[in-house]
Amino acid sequence: MSHQEEAYLCLLCLRDSTRRIARLYWTYINLRTLSGDVPPVLIVMLNVLCNKQDGLHQKLLNSYPDDMEQGKWHDQSVQNKKLSEMTLETQQELQKICTTELTMIMLVGKMMEQ
Q1: Is 97 exposed, middle or buried (0-12, 13-18, 19+ CB in 10 A)?
Q2: Domain coordinates of the chain in residue numbers?
Q3: Which of 10, 25, 29, 74 has the fewest CB atoms in 10 Å of its CB?
Q4: Does residue 114 sit in helix, strand or coil?
Q5: Dist CA 45 CA 102 (whole Å)
Q6: Superkingdom, according to UniProt (predicted)?
Q7: Which residue, 1, 2, 24, is CA-closest to 100?
Q8: Could you give the CA distance from residue 15 to residue 22 in angstroms, rounded to a whole number?
Q9: Averaged in consecutive runs of 10 residues, what is the pLDDT profile of the chain (114 residues)?
């Protein structure tokens, strides 16, 4: 896998991870809305996540217009298969992103329990 392809795949993975976290926050905010208790910080965090996701998507569009137009590696299963072709260093960096995503999922899960 070329360096450019690796960078593209990393950005795709980061964008998708950010999207999943934002959806989780949105779900949590909707649940809190039912009780009438939505801390403003949650809305701020959701806004930050959405802006980050939009920025990553825009960077993908600007830096890799042909790949984005073709939908190259947009399918999650294809992304997972391609991960093994990355350098070990890049795989480790992506693993940190996955760990952060799991931590956020656990944090929001704990907030939902309260």
Answers
A1: middle
A2: 3-113
A3: 74
A4: coil
A5: 17
A6: Bacteria
A7: 24
A8: 10
A9: 93 93 88 85 90 96 97 92 92 90 85 76
